Amino acid sequence: MTVPIQRKNTTAFFVQAGLSFAVSVVAVGVGIAYLPIGPWIRAFLAIGVLYVVTSAFTLAKCIRDQQDDSEVVTRVDQARLDKLLSDHDPFKVPSPPS
């Protein structure tokens, strides 16, 4: 008995998250570009923002992978239990040893 995984997020949520990310990256980029500072400081801030963004993606991937692993383990344990229960017949009389 296989139960499909139910996704909780809608397409609208994904679109909203993508647009929010794009707007925030553009806003920070414009903010860094228009700061009244020298090019070295501007480059440092840009690399810092890039590092924060890539770290956020890595963290999100790690959390997603951990959640997926726990779901797979739970599903495997449930499948083992279902098989054990389906194989067990409480009314079966054991045959005598020969």
Task: Briefly summarize what is shown.
The chain is mainly α and 98 residues long. It has helices at residues 11-33, 39-87. It is rod-shaped and about 90 Å long.
How would you explain this protein's 3D organization?
With 98 residues, the protein is mostly helical. It is built from two helices and no strands. It starts with 10 loop residues before the first helix and ends in an 11-residue tail after the last helix. Helix 1 (11-33) packs antiparallel against helix 2. Helix content is 73%, strand content 0%. The longest helix is centred in the middle third of the chain and has 49 residues, at 39-87. The chain is rod-shaped and about 90 Å long.
Give the secondary structure arrangement, pairings included.
Layout: H1 11-33, H2 39-87
User: Which consecutive residue ranges, at least 5 long each, have pLDDT under 50?
Assistant: none
Report the major sheet.
none
Helix content: over 70%
Distance between the termini: 37 Å
Integer-rounded radius of gyration: 27 Å
Q: Mean pLDDT score, rounded?
A: 83
Give the SSE order as H and E letters: HH
Given the helix and strand composition, which structural class is it? mainly alpha
Overall 3D form = rod-shaped
Q: What's the total helix number?
A: 2
Number of domains: 1
Q: How many individual β-strands?
A: 0
Strand residues, percent: under 5%
